[in-house]
Structures are given as structure tokens and as C-alpha cells.
Design brief:
By secondary structure, this protein is of the alpha/beta class. The protein is 40% helix and 16% strand. It contains 13 helices and 11 strands.
Length: 321
């Protein structure tokens, strides 16, 4: 008998989010090959697949943020601001206290180019989408690189909750609108000298005249504009559809990719909550180091603690056989 949850409360994104971790995490001891077969069979039988994509997916797909990549592409910033803890990777460098707006946009225009605008889709994203092409699919993502859409996913099938590298906003969020900055970033990239852009290129808020920032969730001023809420509503519609399907006993797979414990309240914990609420749902958790799963989920979960650049390909091959 399937556990059936019926509620007259309208599903909202706030209700979907969860801060509750499980108390019975384990690393599954099944052999890797058996876990791959199990995950493939879950996907094969599924009618709905809700993908939760975290930073680990981009890393597995080949996205680079630090190390040799950062030294080769951001060496001028290391030379100007020092080789300290900020200037080791793109994530840390984003928090450097740049001395001026010219310097701030000098850096961020470069990161937007390398991490977003010039970042093409990867083979891993294509294989992943091909793997679920015959399913009803939606992607909930905390990534800002736009690679799912570049790989062919329709924009109406993804909800990027944390913003992206392609838009800017008022730094104080004085109005609920974001602005496409792709062409501006390209111009900044060409005009940059000594790690700074010309003063006349510094964007100003068209409403209050103040500073502008990247539209990336980093503080309380993050702007959720009309397009953000439209994407949220599409996600909630899909979520409601999967819940109704689960209540009817249909197969629903939650495919979690590279989501750790840095921001678990958006994907990891909510997926676990859905598993507790709907006993016909199944969870596939792919993570290089943190594929622990609640023991109480039993055979409904596959936690594959391996490199996703291998496990996704192996699942796809198993589906083809």
C-alpha cells in the first residue's frame, strides 16, 4: 500500500524547502556495478524524473574554477591583488573587497565570460539529458552556468534558484527587475586594462542611480524578478504533478547530482522529505564523497559514491543494454 499524502494547502517553494537532515545516514555497501544496474532500472521504469543539480555536476562535467585554470586565466588579478586566499579560484575571488566599481566589474566581467558566456555545454550534460529524454523531466538547479539549456533542455523545464552569470541587478534590490548583461560583459572584457574597466562602462541602477551587482544569491538583496517567479511556478506545477502521480502509484525518480551539505536545504533535504512523504518515489544520489543516504529508505534509494563523470556514463550504457 502506497503512503498517500493529501493536503489542501497550495504547494509553495517555501514549503518545498527543508532544513531537516536524516538521522540514519549510511554509505550503501552494494557493489558499484549493482548500484549502477539498480539506478538504471529505476530510471527505466520511471514516468517522471525530477533532477536536482548542484555544483558537483558542473565539476564532474569538467567545469574548472581554481588551480591551473585560474592561474592561466586570472594571473593578472593575482599579480595585482596578491596570491592570497582570495585569488585561488573564481568562487573566492568573487568575495575580494575590490577597491572600486571599475575594479569590481573588471573582475566580474571576466568571471562571467569564463564561467558562463564562454562555457559551452558538456558531453556529460548531453548524455544525462539523452538518458531521460523519454521521461517527463524538470531540473531544479543551484548552478549559474546555463549548461543545461546550452545542452538542449528547454528553458521552461529548469528553475535556477540562485541566479546566473548573464544578468545584473540593483545592488540594493530597489526594484524587482534584472538586466541582460551579456553584451556589456563582452564589451568590458575587451576594454579591461590593469584588471579594471573604464569608468564610463560602470553600470548604474536605472531607478535609484546606485551600484549594480551580479544577479547571484549572495545576500538579502538578491532580486527575484518576474522570470524567476515564472520559473518557480513551472517547477511547482511539475512538483504537484509528480506528487499526484506518486499518489497514484506511478514511478517518480528524484535524480540528485552533486549536491553536498553546503546548501542542502534547496535540493538534498527536500528530496529526502519527499521520499519520506511518498513511498512510491525513488531517489538516486550521485556524489563523489557525500552519497550517504537514509537507511530507512531501504531499496528505494541508490547512493553511488563515485565520480559522476563515470557513473552517469555507466548508467546510460546500462540503459542501452
Amino acid at each position: 500500500m502506497f503512503k498517500k499524502i493529501v493536503s489542501d494547502k497550495k504547494m509553495t517553494f517555501e514549503r518545498f524547502l527543508s532544513g531537516r537532515p536524516a538521522r540514519d545516514y549510511i554509505f550503501q555497501k552494494d557493489a558499484y556495478e549493482e548500484q549502477i544496474r539498480k539506478a538504471a532500472e529505476m530510471i527505466r521504469q520511471a514516468e517522471y524524473v525530477l533532477i536536482g543539480a548542484g555544483a558537483g555536476l558542473s565539476t564532474a562535467a569538467g567545469a574548472q574554477y581554481g588551480g591551473k585554470f585560474f592561474r592561466e586565466n586570472f594571473h593578472e588579478f593575482q599579480g595585482k591583488y596578491g596570491n592570497g586566499p582570495y585569488m585561488q579560484d573564481m568562487y573566492s575571488a568573487g568575495f575580494y573587497p575590490y577597491p572600486s566599481e571599475e575594479a569590481y566589474w573588471g573582475y566580474w566581467s571576466k568571471q562571467a565570460m569564463k564561467a558562463g558566456i564562454e562555457a559551452d555545454y558538456t558531453k556529460l550534460h548531453k548524455v544525462l539529458l539523452d538518458m531521460v529524454s523519454d521521461k517527463k523531466v524538470f531540473v531544479l538547479s543551484t548552478n549559474a552556468d546555463g549548461r543545461f539549456v546550452k545542452a538542449g533542455l528547454s528553458e521552461d523545464k529548469i528553475f535556477c534558484t540562485q541566479g546566473d552569470y548573464f544578468h545584473i541587478q540593483c545592488a540594493k534590490g530597489c526594484h524587482k527587475k534584472i538586466y541582460d548583461a551579456v553584451e556589456l560583459f563582452k564589451q568590458m572584457d575587451k576594454a579591461r586594462e590593469d584588471c579594471m574597466i573604464p569608468r564610463e562602462m560602470v553600470p548604474k541602477c536605472p531607478v535609484c542611480g546606485g551600484r549594480m551587482n551580479m544577479n547571484l544569491r549572495c545576500d538579502q538583496f538578491f532580486v527575484e524578478d518576474e522570470s524567476w517567479y515564472q520559473a518557480e511556478n513551472r517547477f511547482l506545477d511539475f512538483l504537484q504533478e509528480t506528487i499526484e502521480a506518486a499518489n497514484e502509484g506511478k514511478k517518480v525518480v528524484l535524480l540528485e547530482l552533486g549536491v553536498g551539505f553546503n546548501t542542502p536545504t534547496i535540493i538534498r533535504f527536500p528530496f529526502e522529505k519527499m521520499m519520506r512523504d511518498y513511498s512510491s518515489m525513488q531517489l538516486i544520489r550521485l556524489n563523489l564523497d557525500e552519497a550517504v543516504v537514509p537507511k530507512s529508505f531501504g531499496n528505494r534509494v541508490a547512493g553511488i559514491n563515485a565520480d559522476m563523470s563515470e557513473s552517469i556514463y555507466d548508467i546510460a550504457k546500462c540503459l542501452e543494454s
